[in-house]
Specification:
The complex is a heterodimer of chains A (83) and B (350). Chain A is of the alpha+beta class. Chain A has helices spanning 11-27, 39-44, 68-82; strands at 2-6, 32-36, 52-55, 58-62. In chain A, strands 2-1-3-4 form a four-stranded mixed β-sheet. In chain A, helix 1 (11-27) crosses helix 3 (68-82). The radius of gyration of chain A is 12 Å and the shape is globular. By secondary structure, chain B is an all-alpha fold. Chain B has helices spanning 3-8, 11-44, 52-82, 87-94, 101-112, 120-129, 134-146, 149-159, 161-184, 194-197, 213-248, 253-258, 265-273, 280-292, 297-309, 312-318, 324-349. The interface between A and B is medium-sized, with 22 and 31 residues.
C-alpha cells in the first residue's frame, strides 16, 4: 500500500501525516508514506483544500485533518477490500 | 426520571439540548457583560465612570469579553453552516459560467465556502483546470479573504450592523468588479502554463460528504479553538496599538493629515495598508481607534480592506501560478477598487 500525504507543508499536512502514521501502527499494516508538496501534482489529484490523503492513487480524504482513529477506519476498509 | 435521563435515551436529542444550553449561556453572558463590568469597576473598585482610569479599565475588559464572545459565537455558527458547502461544490456551481453572473456568484460563494489562504494555489489550479474562467476564479479569490467571519464578527461588535453591511457589500463589489476587469484584460496570458496543462485525474471526493451533525458541531468547536489560537496575538497587538493611539496620539493628529478635508487620505490609507500583513482581528482595534480620532468611515474601512485583502505572503504564494505581471495587475485592480469604495463611503456618509 502506498499512501501519499498531499500538502505544501503547512501545519495541517504535518498533523495529517502524524495521524496517518499513528493509524498505520495501530493497524499493524505495511505501507510506505510519501509526501507530495508540488502544487501541480496536488491539484492533479483534484484536491482543492489541503491537506489530502491518497491511498494507492485514490483520493480518500481532503480538506480536513482527521483523528488517527478516523484514518484508521478509512485504511482498515481499504486493507480489507484489497486483501 | 429526570429530563436529562429521558432525553439521554436519544443521542440526537441530547446533542440539541447541549447546543441549546450553550446558546442560552452565550446570550446570557453577552447580555450580562456590560452590567458585570459596571458593577466590578464602578461599584466594587469604586472608580468613577468619568475618570480616564475607570472608563479605560471598563472599556478594556468589556470590549475584550465582547469581542471574544462575538468571535466564538459567529465562528461556530459560520463553520457549522459552511460544513454544508465545499470548494468542490463551489467549483461545480461555477463551471461553465460566463463572466458577469459568474463573477457575482463567485464572489458570493467566496464568502460562504470554507477556505483558507493556504489552499489558494491548489484551488486556483483546480478551478482553472476545470474550466472556470480566470476572471470568475479571481472574484472568488478576492472575496474569500476580504469578507470573512472574523471581520464580520468584529465589525458587528465594534461598529454595529450598518458599517458591517456596508463592508460586506463593498467587499463583494470589489471582488466582482476586480474579477470582471481581470477577465476582460485576458489575464490568462500571465498564468504559468502548467496550470492549463494540469489534467485532473481520478474522481473528486467531496470533503463534506457523509458528515453527521455531531461531526459538523465538532468542526465548529475545533474551528473556534484553532482560529482563536491563531489570531489572539494579532488581537492583543491590535488592542495595544489601538489603546496607544487612543491614549497618546493628539486628538487632531490623524484628523489633520488624513481627515475628510484631505482628498488623498483614502489612497494614502490603502497604500499604507497593502504591504501590512495582518488579519481582521489585528487591524480592527486599530481601525476603531483611528475612527475615534476623527478619521472618516470610508478611509478606515479602505485601510482595513487593503490590509486584509492584499498581503505580501499571499502574493508570494500566488507567484507559483501567476506571472509577476498578473500579480502586479491583481494588486493594482483590487487596490483601485478599494480606493473607489473608500471615496464612495466618505461621500455617502459625509
Amino acid at each position: 500500500m502506498i499512501i501519499k500525504v498531499l500538502g505544501p507543508g503547512c501545519a495541517n499536512c504535518v498533523n495529517l501525516e502524524k495521524a496517518t502514521r499513528e493509524a498505520l501502527v495501530g493497524l499493524g499494516a505495511d505501507a510506505t508514506v510519501e509526501k507530495v508538496t508540488d502544487y501541480g501534482e496536488i491539484a492533479a489529484y483534484g484536491i482543492m483544500r489541503t491537506p489530502g490523503l491518497v491511498v494507492d492513487e485514490q483520493v480518500v480524504l481532503s480538506g480536513r485533518v482527521p483523528t488517527a482513529a478516523q484514518v484508521r477506519e478509512i485504511l482498515a476498509a481499504l486493507v480489507g477490500s484489497s486483501a | 426520571m429526570s429530563v436529562g435521563e429521558r432525553l439521554g435515551t436519544s443521542r440526537g436529542a441530547r446533542r440539541w439540548v447541549v447546543v441549546g444550553g450553550a446558546a442560552l449561556l452565550w446570550v446570557t453572558a453577552y447580555e450580562l457583560n456590560v452590567h458585570l463590568w459596571n458593577w466590578l469597576v464602578y461599584d466594587v473598585l469604586g472608580l468613577a465612570p468619568e475618570s480616564r482610569l475607570g472608563s479605560g479599565i471598563h472599556f478594556f475588559f468589556y470590549d475584550t469579553v465582547k469581542i471574544a464572545l462575538l468571535l466564538t459565537g459567529i465562528i461556530f455558527v459560520v463553520t457549522v453552516l459552511r460544513s454544508f458547502m465545499s470548494v468542490e461544490r463551489t467549483r461545480a456551481l461555477l463551471g461553465g459560467r460566463r463572466e458577469g453572473l459568474g463573477n457575482v456568484l463567485a464572489a458570493a460563494l467566496g464568502v460562504v465556502t470554507p477556505f483558507c489562504s493556504c489552499s489558494a494555489v491548489p484551488a486556483f489550479i483546480g478551478f482553472v483546470a476545470a474550466g472556470v474562467p480566470v476572471g470568475v476564479t479571481m472574484s472568488f479569490l478576492i472575496a474569500s479573504p476580504l469578507v470573512n467571519e472574523v471581520a464580520i464578527a468584529l465589525l458587528l461588535g465594534l461598529f454595529g450592523i450598518g458599517p458591517t453591511l456596508l463592508y460586506v457589500g463593498a467587499g463583494l463589489v470589489v471582488a466582482i468588479v476586480g474579477g470582471v476587469v481581470l477577465g476582460r484584460i485576458h489575464a490568462e496570458r500571465w498564468i504559468e502554463p502548467f496550470v492549463f496543462e494540469t489534467r485532473l485525474r481520478g474522481q473528486v471526493i467531496d470533503s463534506t460528504l457523509g458528515l453527521s451533525w455531531d461531526d459538523r458541531l465538532q468542526m465548529g468547536a475545533e474551528e473556534v479553538r484553532s482560529i482563536l489560537r491563531k489570531i489572539w496575538p494579532y488581537l492583543v497587538v491590535g488592542i495595544w496599538v489601538g489603546a496607544a493611539i487612543h491614549g497618546w496620539a493628539p486628538q487632531d493628529l490623524f484628523a489633520r493629515y488624513a481627515g475628510a478635508s484631505n482628498p488623498l487620505a483614502v489612497p494614502l490609507a490603502v497604500l499604507i495598508g497593502v504591504p501590512l500583513y495582518s488579519n481582521a482581528a489585528g487591524v480592527l482595534p486599530l481601525v476603531e481607534a483611528l475612527h475615534d480620532k476623527g478619521l472618516p468611515m470610508g478611509t478606515v474601512l479602505a485601510f482595513m480592506m487593503a490590509v486584509v485583502a492584499l498581503s505580501l505572503p499571499e502574493m508570494i504564494l500566488l507567484r507559483r501560478v501567476l506571472k509577476p505581471r498578473l500579480i502586479a495587475t491583481f494588486v493594482g485592480v483590487v487596490a483601485a477598487g478599494i480606493v473607489a469604495v473608500g471615496y464612495l463611503f466618505n461621500a455617502v456618509l459625509g
